[in-house]
């Protein structure tokens, strides 16, 4: 297996990333790269890894979907009582990673994570397909269940009792990661990859070029 893994090698191209060709605003730079990825029709372009950690510093990570972003931060939705939700109660800091291999690009974003305002969580919840809303209301995310059939049974019971009209559960809603660090990564030949880091200080973003 080790030999097989060692033979997996992809040589990256020559797209350049430097302090001279990026925006001084990391949110604008993210938007530029995200739009470029959209134009490439990359599947699940808004898929991202979210990393959180518990009180002992033990990390956990999972793939989520980005649902909104602006100068305030990056938003996603989940069950507040899930593993990530419980970890964020203890340690409100996390990290996001976007990886678009088709473009040989990666973006890391770190910062503090806070719950979204209730009206924003409501607005997103009520525009979801009814099946997704019911699943969110019924599933005890991250808790042990007997099997899939037990969840399907609860969904059927929920439909009979509530129909299509019900409120967003208090345990389900959105979060916003408020960035204090961005890193943009561009794959280059011979693994001499380009890396530009943004960090915030005194309400200004500072750019640094990092070694591969």
Automatic annotation (TrEMBL):
Name of the protein: Pyridoxine/pyridoxamine 5'-phosphate oxidase
Subunit structure and binding partners: Homodimer.
EC number(s) given by UniProt: 1.4.3.5
Binding site for FMN: 62-67, 77-78, 83-84, 106, 141-142, 185, 195
Molecular function terms, GO-annotated: FMN binding; pyridoxamine phosphate oxidase activity
Cofactors required: FMN
Pfam families hit by this protein: PNP_phzG_C, PNPOx_N
Gene that this sequence comes from: pdxH
Species: Ancylomarina longa
